[in-house]
Write a structure and sequence with these properties.
alpha/beta; 2-enoyl-CoA Hydratase, Chain A, domain 1; SH3 type barrels; 2 domains; 27% helix; disordered N terminus
């Protein structure tokens, strides 16, 4: 099923709403950056990110998502942009709370191995619920239900309190018409045969599944993942894979590097 949520409907239903839909608030805005053939949104969503995407998201573009949520109004604006510009949404990590709105509004949806989409009720920036946030949640729920979002997802948004999360399952993704590159349980094996595709032109293999972990090796784009033994999701929602990657050394010799690589820089 294709969920055709129009930008006009999004704007009319919740125009001006600026409550936080996630308690995962931070002092900084998310990162919007070039990624492969599209743009990636990762980190806490703020109005700044909506402004950046308004200026940079092309018609029929691709928006990669990996965010714990943020400001509802900003997520709503990004959802409007995604729908109006007929963007595809590709979830590459945890896409929760306000991040789920662009996913629902996109004209095409893809969920990569190990990635998840989650919803819950809205709250103030300090995590409190009140009459305003409860009314906001009710409006969002009606809007999503009117446009074909599965009833189980709608119910999950209503019942999951701001400190909890309802994660969509495979059946709900299927009802939304989302393409699952593979299931979460097969995430590790699924990246075997994939290749490094990083905006910088090379990828970093790390000693642990964290951006702060030491770099074991830098490998050029196009380097092949020969094996993929384990997958983990970090606190930012980024999926990491424990891999063996083959690459060419400076003298052209074939080498191997073992360690953890972010799923954000892997492609088929």
């Amino acid at each position: 099923m294709n969920v055709a949520v129009t930008a006009r409907t999004f704007g009319r239903t919740l125009a001006g709403a600026m409550v936080a839909i996630s308690v995962c608030m931070g002092a900084t805005h998310a990162e919007v950056a070039s990624y492969g053939s599209g743009l990636i949104l990762r980190g806490t969503i703020t109005d700044h990110d909506a402004d950046v995407l308004d200026a940079s998201l092309p018609h029929n573009g691709t928006l990669f998502l990996s965010s714990p949520g943020g400001i509802l109004g900003a997520g709503l604006r990004i959802a409007q942009l995604a729908n109006l510009r007929r963007a595809s949404a590709v979830v590459v990590g945890n896409c929760a709370s306000a991040c789920s709105l662009p996913f629902f509004a996109a004209t095409r949806r893809v969920v990569r191995p190990g990635a998840r989409v989650g919803v819950h009720s809205s709250a103030k920036a300090d995590g409190r619920e009140d009459d305003e946030t409860l009314a906001t949640t009710a409006r969002i729920v009606r809007m999503l239900a009117d446009h074909g979002v599965p009833q189980t997802v709608v119910a999950g948004m209503m019942t999951a309190t701001p400190d909890k999360m309802y994660w969509l399952n495979d059946q709900e993704f299927a009802l939304l018409g989302a393409t699952q590159v593979n299931t979460t349980t097969a995430a590790a094996a699924s990246c075997t045969g994939w290749r490094i595709e990083a905006p910088a032109g090379f990828g970093r293999i790390r000693s642990a599944p964290s951006l702060s972990a030491p770099v074991v090796e830098r490998v050029a784009n196009g380097s092949r993942i020969e094996s993929c033994s384990e997958s983990r999701t970090d606190a930012r929602g980024v999926v990491w894979h424990n891999v063996t990657a083959s690459y060419r050394g400076e003298a052209g010799q074939q080498l191997e590097a073992r360690g953890w690589v972010s799923g954000l820089i892997l492609a088929r």
